[in-house]
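Protocol step 4 of 6: structure prediction from sequence.
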Amino acid sequence: MGTVLPFVAELADLERRTAAAKMLAEHVGAKDLLIFAPDEEVGALLPAPGFPQTLPGGREWREFVRRCAQEGRAQAELPYPDVATVLPASGIALRGGAVLVLLGGRPRDELVAQAVEALPLLAAAFRAERKATAGAGHAAAAVASTRQSEKLVARLTQLQGELQAALRELNEASRLKDEFLATLSHELRTPLNAIIGWAHVLQAGNLDRETTAKAIETIRRSAQSQNQLISDMLDVSRIVAGKLRLEVRPVELAPIIDATLDTVRPAAVAKAVNLVHEMEPAAGPVLGDPDRIQQVVWNLLSNAIKFTPTGGRVRVALTALASDLEVTVEDDGPGIDPEFLPHVFDRFRQADSSPSRSHGGLGLGLAIVRHLVELHGGSVRAHNREGGKGAVFSVRLPRHRLPAGGDVAHPEGAGSPSWIDDAPSLAGVRVLVVDDEEDARELVTTILTRCGAEVVVAHSASEGLATLQRRRPDVLLSDIEMPDEDGYSLIRKVRSLSGERGGLVPAAALTAYASTHDRAKALAAGFDIHVPKPVHPAELVAVVASLRASKLRG
């Protein structure tokens, strides 16, 4: 037994155990050896400290070691040191509950017997090491658990902060929504009150010419105010949906600014606000949508006039910079609250949204301005005047180098002639108007008959279909929303008719459903054109003339 003891003694040193096990294995004639010792905490045989703790084919090894402990001896083919290498294994149970496993080679029985007698001397060392390892593991686990707990507490604190911030944002959004709805109701009802009130006064009669003219002008102005509110809301809806589109071409800014000044001048005159404009000659064009650029300038000028006191001054300037054109609108009003300045271009935000506020509006105009300017590749900023009261809004748009012979778009000014002066003649054109609203039918009839058209009306889709086959109109104008049967159903039935019975009549959907989706739906149903309400008389006449011309060409 003395020949084995030096190697067994080497196994007592945990740091040298791997090398000592290899030497002992070779001494007894094996390729390698493992020792499994009882683990009281787990209640199973595990590799003793210093031996590989993870073995390939773990389930096979567990079953083999268990069988050795129960039967005293066992043999098997087991993967070691990896799944690709399989070695013959001989397992022997030792006193004290440990198991010796010899791997590969040709172990010599007399030396193996000596090792079996000597190895139980290490049982106490194995147990002490296992407890120490377990204790260190528990300590490490405790440290790791503490660190994990600290991380978890930090993450929970962070999530709580994020949740509170989200809750504050949600409450703020809810507050802004409530304020917006209240403001919207007020802004829509105010002009509606003037329209209804003056309509009743006109209906009562006995008004002199001056009062009648005042009533008509108030109704017109109030209706335009409502139309502007609705247009702003639709624009914001298109912006949110990403469906706002530009019709881009080279545009001169000076004529656009002049035309917009003509549009806002009546409001400025009413407040005795002096409009000053400074235009740099030959500033050059930008690439943009003239209608949308005019909308930007109109919003800024209207805002400036609204916040400028009576007798004040609003200045608009066009300046050519190195690569941009800059439009500046400056007023001498109270300026912008510094705390509100970062939110001045936010949707639905107003510096004063209280019932006692001095100025109306929905808080949409400047949000629309920013989006339109950014769609043009430009920028807009706002600041207060230095050394005095007033706000300054600056819009920068990239300059466009126009090729030789290029055409530039110019807007129509406010001084354009009345719509009737330039309206095309509709003499000899028979128009069928289908609408369940009497006021709508009368308005369209009046506009078209003033241009010489013969107008036939129908109160419903069914009546319209019958009238179309009987009177054979040149053009069909139909509302969409009608009781019992809508305009989509009407146009589908019309298009199902033969050409001789009126199935090819040019048709326009004249409707308050004004979204891009509504337009696509109307065209898909069979209408040739989609005309959203409210429609300007000149546009309505032009639509009828265009549809009539398309019929003649067809």
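Step 5 (inspection) to follow. The CA atoms of residues 145 and 206 lie 91 Å apart.
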